[in-house]
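PT: before anyone asks, these are the final sequences, not the draft ones from last week. 1201 residues across everything. Please model them as a single complex and drop the result in this thread when it's through.
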Amino acid sequence: MQPNRPMTRWQRFTDNDIVWSFLHSPGAMVAAVVTVVIILACTMAPLIAPFDPFDPAQISLWDGKLPPAWLEGGQPQYLLGTDNQGRDMLSTILYGGRLSIMVGLAAVCLGMVLGVTLGLVSGYVGGVTDAVIMRIADVQLTIPGILLAILINGIGRAVLPLELREEFAIYVVIIAIGLTDWPQFARVTRGATLVEANKEYVQAARIIGLPGWLILLRHILPNTLRPVLVIATIGLALAIIAEATLSFLGQGIPPTTPSLGTLIRVGNEYLFSGLWWITFFPAIALVVLVFAVNLLGDWMRDALNPKLR
Amino acid sequence: MLFFILKRLAQSVLVMAVVSAVSFSLFNFVGDPVNNMVGQDATREQRIEIRQQLGLDDPILTQYSRFIGNMVQGDFGLSYRIKRPVDELIFERLPATLELVFVSAIIALVVGIGLGIYTGIRRHAWASRAVLSVSLIGVSLPTFIIGIALIYIFAVHLRWLPSSGRSGTVDLGGWKTSLLSIDGWRAIILPAITLSLFQLTLILRLVRAEMLEVMQTDFIKFARARGLSERAIHFRHALRNTLVPVITIIGLNIGGLIAFSVITETVFQWPGTGLMFIQAVDFVDVPIMAAYLVFVALLFVIINLVVDILYFVVDPRIRLGN
Amino acid sequence: MTELLKINGLCVEFPTRRGTVQAAKDVSLTVSPGEVVGLVGESGAGKSTIGNAIIDLLEAPGRVSGGSILFQGEELRGRSDAEMRMVRGNRIGMIFQDPQTSLNPLMTIGAQLVETIQKTNDLGITQAEARAVELLEQVGITEARARLLAYPHQFSGGMRQRVVIALALAGDPDLIIADEPTTALDVSIQAQILDLIKDLCRKRKLGVIIVTHDIGVIANIADRVVVMYRGDVVETGDVAQILGAPQHEYTKSLIAAVPRADRKMHRFSSVDYIEGGHQPSAKIDVQTHWLGQGAKHENTGPAIQVEGLNLSFVLQKALLKRNRKMLRAVNDVSFQLEPGETFGLVGESGSGKSTVARLIAGLYRPDAGTVRVLGQDVTTAPHSREARRARRAVQMIFQDPYSSLNARMRVMDIVAEPIRFYKLTSSEAETRKIVGDLLDHVGLGAGAALRYPHEFSGGQRQRISIARALASRPRILICDEPTSALDVSVQATILNLLKDLQSELGLTMLFISHDLPVVRQMCDKIAVMRNGQICEIAPTEQLFESPQHAYSRHLLDLMPKMDLLARAPA
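LR: through. Structure below.
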């Protein structure tokens, strides 16, 4: 059963059950490729987008409301048509996607760092600290995230002076979504910490005499990361949706630097007059992105839960 | 058992205390209430008078206890924008939201649990795989995009159903209902489907996952080894054990529906409390924001209590103790 | 036709990503009515697979790839699922290992019995209930009628297993397959359940297949034995012949590895037939090596002295203190360990023996009482420098080889952790050299350092644990059921290793086990624990030859009778 000599790094990598499952799951691979392509395309928007939607010199109202290139009246330089202000749809989508992904990632990171830290402390220290942290999480979990995000976001905007609102809107959104995210991470991390802390390798570390913080960092944290990774992936999809929803409700990213949600909101006003492409393409971009991330998260959850394999 | 219920009740009180403190602080920290009452060009004397009238110079704890006292009586003051009592506004719009949530909950629960059981039992059937793939798309579709798509297809393109608003209501002693007329149903059907879709897919996937997990247990294997029929195994043994975690999901699900009604009501211009809340946030109409927050928290606390009691009914391990 | 069941050339395979695993290769066996056939083997032998294959409940993706299963003259292979359902329960009953999970927690046991009875017999509800009461009485459950309304969680483990047996008997089957039916139970309950099965077999002329890893169970209950090793049947025969005069090399080494309760031997007989039996061991000379140069403790008294130790756990929370249910896990325990001796702590599960070990190791704080390590009080001021220094002399080996190693660390880093933390060497190169030496010394070879724990078997992981404990250069080693999760043949090699280490390093050892034969082989002195209290402390031979306390006598009576075992030379 045991190999006779240590495997090379690559062998060990491909021998890993999760990697093996990934290499044998076409859905997960396609999802990973799609996610990576979208994220790359969006982050490199300034390099690959045909136009700069923020450069007034490149926009002319004369070119406004043009349909996609393959339809009658479309122009070849505007592949997906133009919006009401004459901006190239493809370029605005790339720039908008960049913003959406950035906000999503930042919000998840904020929620994860906060949640994992509190969850670890809560699970390992126990007692009053644990009770206080988990009660706060419980209270927060009774209220659905999106509602809380709207509220925090609304308060954040109201507290800021008017002239700073647009400038800081993006940070307010990140904080609002990140703050609603943390209880999930805290709960999962705490649960995993409790399980790990009772395992005998942690007792062995205590008997050796290692201090608590070192045991937490070196032994417990690495063993709790798997479920956190799953939540983070699914959380990224949810955060992107949350940002889009806030922006769609007019509470998020302002139209001057539009995200995908803002684009859909703006386009929605033109839907009834038949200019469907102004809404349709950003919506498709959003759904494909979220779907790919969800597919990855879904596969990850199955792969990391050996009971259901 | 008494301990358990007391603990839950204490927790509920705690939730309400925290939420009321948050909504109280909204009044104090978000915007200046005096400005909101009298406008920018009031004189200094007028402002001082209003401050005294509102008791804004009292110690903060006095203000808070007054706020709690009023809150318990349902009094949240006047809306800054519409200048009408907030409780009146909420009760006017409550039927629209509750009916929307109710219809959505039925759709989500019936279809979600049904398909969840089916895909859990017939794990490898092609229909299960199809349902599962579609459900993942469902989880990935933001509510507002579903709404826009349904409006575009059924209202703009096919012109079968109205695109927005709530028409055809029938007045039942102050409660305006959509559920008693054809027009009412025509208006509610699109928003209800929109609202239910996301929760439906969540329920479906969770029920399926629970079902699969239960099917792996030893007692199912032992039931098989006794030669019990697949029917008895699935419905008598597996399903009931699946139900325990599913109850929690239903609680969360109804909470989620209330939250997402904000978005659905905005897309469909449905005149419910969610739409009112979003408009209030736009205008920093603090009394409405605070009242809505307290109201929603109260709903969730009640739902959670009911869920806990349901646990008691379903699971003998909790009911009878060890 | 006298055979009830006749299996011929049965092959079972499990296709996996690393190729097809042959779980059973050309297995043949027979069972007659009124006969108990023991199917014995260590983990991975394929013994459970046979039972599952008979009733066609192999776990996916396993499948029967050859051979025939004749039951009462009829071929069971290739039957449809509906046909097999009429066989399961009605003609073949099954008993599983863990009674905690075998019953549906949300149905009363009455409902589960009635459901099964009505499936197998055409009875009305009242008749079915009467039959359920009858069955419960037959398996030794009193007040059966009232118990019908109880839920599984209201029964103890042993009682639940009786309910499971009643359910298996509900269809009046002719063959019972019991898969490790007593492994999850305490010794005293084990004996009762085995007696019940044997009794039912005789009275009802049942054929019984008992699948087990435990030679003791076989000796107690089986008429005939089938020995399996890695999917092959290596030997079949009468129980007296298999245990007393085994023919096959594997059976011989298996039997030799079983710890003997009847007398103490110097070492366990060498077991060659198992994996890891031959170790490429380049032993080190501990006298000159780093390992032998540990800190000196000027202490002439006992190595460990425990006085009036008490610890309670809260079982059930309540608002009022008097309503809280407390468990006195350790109740006024005192004893001492002389330097260099091995002290055994025995008892059934829940007796508090592991808790005592953890109190000494400092994992729990006692409610009252003191622990002295090498003369130093480590409980009054546990964080003082002296207490911490004394405590470093105590290391522990745990029961579960899978959870006692951090899966995310290489063996090198696991073993080197105490060396690096306390800077016990002058350079990283020296640390690596020493870790390699330690791994060599415990019989793994220095090459193991670069691998991760999941690449090793249970026995090998225990060796890693031992190496990690040695890296702190301990004077005292606490072994908490160090081999109870291991196969017997692996157990023998690990116990030999511990014996060697003790004599080389002059270690003091606290050895905790529920397994009396193992304790007899390992210990100089033994304390018997029950319900958190010590019943009796006596030198090993004295305890086994003339136990003083009633509970000690009771435990000794429950030991499996091994009179049949081959007399290996001492």
